[in-house]
Each structure stands twice: as structure tokens, then as C-alpha cells.
């Protein structure tokens, strides 16, 4: 399938999920994340979910990271340049939703991309080769190309993979893992 078709299909599938189902599936994903070989790493980048889009609730993973004393990094979007600026999440971080309902830090201690060891990547769909379809703005593909080569890229999905995303581009960055409520896929 093409990314455009996948976006439409998976936005629809997400809209069918109740809040209780989202929490149950998100907790199952967090439990699978515990099995990944990532826990010796220090800097973990995570997205804060757009609840209106029924994204994976990353609160459970945030609790895991916090409990393991990891440095947690969140981003702020610049829609003019499609760049992400990364900030350390601390007890003093103030979060505000932007005009697209994306929760973002207002300010804080900036973290250079080169420090980030693990990135949890939002997505709408993924395939069996590790490619993903996001919302189509390219924020994460741009960000992931700026990361060091050994940065571990982990997609989070409520749904199992498609066979193949047909319109993969040269600058699309593959995932290393994708975690669903039932499975951990390694690419």
C-alpha cells in the first residue's frame, strides 16, 4: 500500500479505539519495551501523544524511564523548517499544546541530537522491513538522519505490520524495532 492510503486506513482504525482500549494497548506496549536490549543507554527521546489523534499513550514508558533514572528528552516542533528542538524533561518542565495539539515543552535545557541514544518514534503504520508511515511532514525522518548512526530507533504501534509500504523514499529512515501490544519486531 501507499503511505497516503495507509495514513487514511490507520487514522480510521485508531478512531475506533476507546480511551480504555488505548490505555490497555499502551500498557501492553510498555511491558514489551521492557524486553528490549536498551536499558544500558542513558538519553531516551520520547514523544508526548496527541490525544486527539489517539496516539500510543507514552506515559507508561515515561514511568519506566523515570524509574530507571534515564535522561528523558522531548521535542518542540518548528513548522516553518520541519525541525525538532530537543529539551531535557525535568520536574520543572512546563508543557503546553501547540496549535496542532502537540504537547511541547515551553523551554528548558536543550539537548544536542548527538547525545540521544534511543528514540521512540510515533507512526501510523509500519511494514515488515522496518519502514514507517507518519503524518507526512518529515519531522522524524529529518531528526533521525541527524542522530548518530548507533542511535536505536523504536516505533510504537497499536497494530501489526503491513506487508510492504510501496512508496518508500531514499531519505526515509528505517526503524531498528517496532513494538506492538503483541510483538517486538526487529529489523
UniProtKB/TrEMBL annotation:
GO molecular function, one term: metal ion binding
Alphabetically ordered keywords of this record: ATP-binding, Ligase, Magnesium, Metal-binding, Nucleotide-binding
EC number: 6.3.3.2
UniProt cross-references to SUPFAM superfamilies, sorted A to Z: NagB/RpiA/CoA transferase-like
Cofactor(s) for this UniProt protein: Mg(2+)
Binding of substrate, residues: 50, 55
UniProt KW Methyltransferase keyword: no
Catalytic activity: (6S)-5-formyl-5,6,7,8-tetrahydrofolate + ATP = (6R)-5,10-methenyltetrahydrofolate + ADP + phosphate
Ranges that cross the membrane: none
Gene3D superfamilies listed in its UniProt record: NagB/RpiA/CoA transferase-like
GO biological process: folic acid-containing compound biosynthetic process; tetrahydrofolate interconversion
Family: Belongs to the 5-formyltetrahydrofolate cyclo-ligase family.
Stated name of the protein: 5-formyltetrahydrofolate cyclo-ligase
Amino acid at each position: 500500500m501507499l503511505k497516503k492510503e495507509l495514513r487514511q486506513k490507520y487514522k480510521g482504525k485508531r478512531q475506533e479505539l476507546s480511551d480504555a482500549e488505548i490505555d490497555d494497548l499502551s500498557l501492553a506496549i510498555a511491558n514489551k519495551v521492557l524486553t528490549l536490549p536498551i536499558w544500558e543507554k542513558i538519553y531516551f527521546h520520547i514523544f508526548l501523544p496527541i490525544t486527539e489523534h489517539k496516539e500510543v499513550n507514552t506515559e507508561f514508558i515515561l514511568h519506566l524511564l523515570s524509574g530507571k533514572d534515564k535522561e528523558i528528552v522531548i521535542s518542540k516542533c518548528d513548522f516553518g523548517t520541519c525541525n525538532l528542538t530537543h529539551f531535557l524533561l525535568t520536574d520543572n518542565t512546563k508543557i503546553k499544546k501547540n496549535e496542532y495539539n502537540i504537547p511541547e515543552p515551553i523551554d528548558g535545557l536543550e539537548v544536542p541530537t548527538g547525545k540521544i541514544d534511543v528514540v521512540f518514534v510515533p507512526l501510523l503504520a509500519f511494514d515488515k522491513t522496518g519502514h514507517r508511515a507518519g503524518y507526512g511532514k518529515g519531522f522524524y525522518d529529518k531528526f533521525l538522519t541527524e542522530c548518530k548512526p548507533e542511535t536505536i530507533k523504536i516505533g510504537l504501534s497499536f497494530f501489526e505490520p503491513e506487508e510492504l509500504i510501496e512508496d518508500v523514499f531514499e531519505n526515509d529512515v528505517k526503524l531498528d524495532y517496532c513494538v506492538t501490544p503483541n510483538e517486538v519486531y526487529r529489523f
